[in-house]
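[Meeting: bench + compute handoff]

Bench side (C.D.) handed over the final construct sequence. Compute side (W.E.) agreed to return the predicted structure before the next meeting so the bench team could plan truncations. Sequence as handed over:
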Amino acid sequence: MDPPAAKKRALDGAEDAQRVESICVEKFFDAREKEVITLQALLTKAGRNSDNSRKKFCAFQLLPRHLRRRAMSHNPYLVPSPLRGLALKQSRANQPGSAKQVRRRRSRRSKRKASWLETHLWHAKRFKMGRHGKYVIPLKSSSRSRRAAYRDSKSHSVIWDSSFFQLLSVRGTEQNLASLFSSLNVNSEAVLASHKFYHRVAFYRKSTSNSNLWVPIAPVFLHGRRLPSQCLEFWIWVDALALEDVKDAILQNATNIDLSDFVEQWNRYELIGPQSSRILQKILSPVLPESVQLWQKLLSGRPSSAPNNVCLICQVRDPRLLSPSDPPPPSNSGLLSLQELFQHPLWQLHDSAPTWDVDRLALEGLCRLKEHQINARNKTNQDVLSSSCWTVLARLPPENRERVQDAWVLHVPKTWGLVFWKCCVLNGCRPIGYDERLDLMLSSDQLRFPHDYPGTPAHEVYQKNLGEKLNMAWLSKPPAKRVNYAKLSVSSPFTCPWHELAGPAFDGTLSITNTIPSQLYGTNTRKNPLQLVCALLRLPKGGSVITYNARVYDDQDHLLGFVTSGHYSYAWGMATAIAFCRADRIKDLFREKQTTVLVKNASSQFAHSAHITLHPSSTLSS
């Protein structure tokens, strides 16, 4: 810096300092008195109305601007504590506005058309939700894949909420019930002889055009009891999509039978996996002392120790009041035999258990302990509280290829659903959704409802909705990116054209046969239903996935049937599909000892060689 310039700046700073030291405050204020009076008048005028009355400010408006928040206008507890009293006082003066908001929230809830499960709020935070009839159910997990669900079902335990299954009750004499089940194509002798067991059957109705053929209605689960009046009562668990169809079929074929509807009175959970019995042993503690030993033998053994389809009704303690403890490791010692089961008092209690009285269970549900009571009990370490409920536990047959998988169905009364659900999840069960459960069923070669039940009203609705969804996805693409189905000679790319398989003699009815008789040979010009048989398809070479509405051909390019569901199976390590084919053509195929067919997806121009076998529910007669 130039020395003369620095010297001049230093002299100027000294002169400024002398000027500041010589200022007189009184003279300075007198010189600016008019300016101060004008500023004070402006501030006073800003705080008053036009009538010279003082303005009223909200509590949050008295804060500096950098401390104000928008939420303070409706939540006074966000205002700092020095002004919170004024904010609460001002909010009480605006009570009509808050009451209006409550009324609006209630009206919005009353307009809800869909029904919720008891675990809806728990699932809505963790799953993708979707409609299933009138219910909103969890479809798939938001954080876990389908492969993870399969691994958990194979090595651990998964739980699925199937509470959308509805309960029907039929009561009548043994002869009348035998006639009813026979009219629905059910083995009445086996069901009535073992009425205490949990059976999975399928209801059929006779075709209107041919009384010798059966048309499917829906798969159901049923178990019953014997009444003191020498009558029988059966509970029928049916999917909500087929509830009205099953009720109509029972009423049409019933004679002197009482039909009752217990909709939304029970919660139904399915536990699948080798660790399911150990988890159930943790959360289910019988109240009766004589039932503890049987319960331990039933649940502590390996999956093959408990009899298949066994159904037990037991009163258990509230799982929230149980102390955490690990069950003993599984062992083969002390296996449960059927003779020991039939002689046990718990099995004798089956017919007279309070679970059959739905009104009594509803009253007991009102006496359930609340969450705040459980929390108060845990804080004070008091064991004076007691709570219990009646449950129905049934064991399903194994589903996986090795036939060692453990599968249980737990039924709990209304208002108890979320309690047992949380306890199962906290003890190690991995929750799955509807789509993941369908994948497990396809991996174990089980028919899925309504996907694999063509001819039922529920399948027609499902096929229509799926076709509209696929059509919208196809139209959403640019014309240059769409699949040209006309070039592929596919007339119905989004729904299964059963009329192409039947020919001109098709009357629109689909008949599912479990046995292929020899009299199916020959042509018939009368109007007849289309007789279908279920078959399994597998692609041994892999490299592709069999999709819905894929065509199945023989080696001579004759159309055999259509695929109703297909996916990659983690259990088989290859693409697996379920197809329904014409019964007469399938018999010709197996008579020539051919087990290879061609499968072509609707959107593909190439056909793949697949191995075909009959579904386990179908048999081939001579």
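W.E. noted at the follow-up: The two ends are 116 Å apart (CA to CA). C.D. will use this when planning the next construct.
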